[in-house]
Specification:
Largest sheet: 7 strands, mixed
Structural class: alpha/beta
Shape: globular
Radius of gyration: 20 Å
Distance between the termini: 42 Å
Length: 327
């Protein structure tokens, strides 16, 4: 095992996949300078043909990724979630739908590394957590890693997948450290984490807490304070939202009888809303209390660093929601 930061794990995954397959290339704004860390040293190792700095034109370079994937390349595209809006035609009308429109004759192995920077004074135009939008669009796999080992294993799986994948990278987790298995410690020699398989981060008995990206860190902190009061929570990290591992969540709710879903996206039509819907539809008779949703308030993100933290989930909000299910 080795101890890596979240961003280091992503970098290692991309480097290994570029070494493994010459069709894999990396593109985005300022990736050669590695502004966000995940492309560190890639330009020095692979050169200008495989590490491409792009113009400030997401619609253009995501369109180029779509086109190149149709002729055998496997692009990995780095962008900010907040800049994806200007490429929605390419993402939604082309990338998500082409395989269907071509009757399955085309594969589009495009991986979008979508960086989310929020709760850091980035204001409304740069703080989006827009994975719920892409959950609503068939044809795109939605990946939300929290811990370094998951970040590496899920990124490697995404790059090898023959369908479009968006890996939503939480900028708040960039420096989070964790144990990551060495390749020689794994049976098949590769850290590949399958999609649609949730992770039980912590076992518990009184309430299930499903956390998305950084919310799992808040949930772990909340669990320590709740344990001091004799309350045990089980923490589930879905790891992927499309496909979603419904069964692990339902099994946990069957055990605890309660659920709180914690989601840094806006609460209306959120991933939390979908997960609660699944539990109510398929596990209603196991519930002993109404499900609770801890998500971002339905307002634009203020620039004020005094106001912004009030919008997002916190360990205090999680504690309050868990206790509400136990009333």
């Amino acid at each position: 095992m080795k101890n890596l930061m979240y961003v280091e794990a992503l970098n290692e995954a991309i480097r290994e996949e570029m070494e493994n397959d010459e069709a894999v290339y990396y593109m985005g704004e300022d990736v050669r300078a590695s502004i966000y860390g995940a492309s560190k040293d890639l330009f020095n190792k692979f050169g200008e043909d495989r590490v491409l700095d792009t113009p400030l034109s997401e619609n253009g370079f995501i369109g180029a990724a779509v086109g190149s994937s149709l002729v055998g390349m496997r692009p990995v595209v780095e962008t900010l979630t907040s800049f994806m809006w200007v490429a929605m035609d390419q993402l939604v009308s082309q990338l998500a739908k082409m395989k269907y429109m071509f009757g399955g004759q085309a594969s589009l192995p495009v991986t979008i590394k979508a960086d989310m920077y929020y709760n850091g004074g980035m204001a409304a135009h740069h703080s989006d957590r827009n994975y719920p939008f892409f959950m609503n669009m068939p044809g795109i796999k939605v990946i939300v890693p929290t811990f370094p080992e998951d970040a590496k294993g899920l990124m490697k799986t995404a790059i090898r997948d023959n369908d479009p994948c968006i890996v939503f990278v939480d900028g708040n987790l960039g420096g989070l450290k964790g144990e990551v298995k060495e390749n020689n410690e794994i049976e098949n020699g590769e850290l590949l984490i399958p999609f649609g398989k949730a992770k039980v981060v912590k076992e518990g008995t009184d309430c299930t807490v499903v956390g998305i990206v950084n919310s799992n860190v808040h949930a772990l902190n909340a669990s320590k304070k709740l344990e001091e009061e004799g309350i045990s929570i089980e923490i589930i990290d879905p790891r992927t939202l499309v496909p979603l591992d419904k069964q692990t969540i339902l099994n946990s709710v069957e055990k605890t009888g309660r659920i709180v879903v914690v989601d840094p996206a806006h609460k209306v039509c959120s991933a939390a809303s979908e997960i609660i819907s699944v539990v109510v539809e398929e596990g209603f008779w196991n519930l002993q209390a109404p499900p609770q949703k801890v998500a971002a308030e339905q307002v634009h993100i203020p620039f004020s660093q005094a106001l912004e933290p009030l919008i997002f989930p916190t360990e205090e909000k999680i504690i309050e929601a868990v206790k509400k299910t136990l009333e």
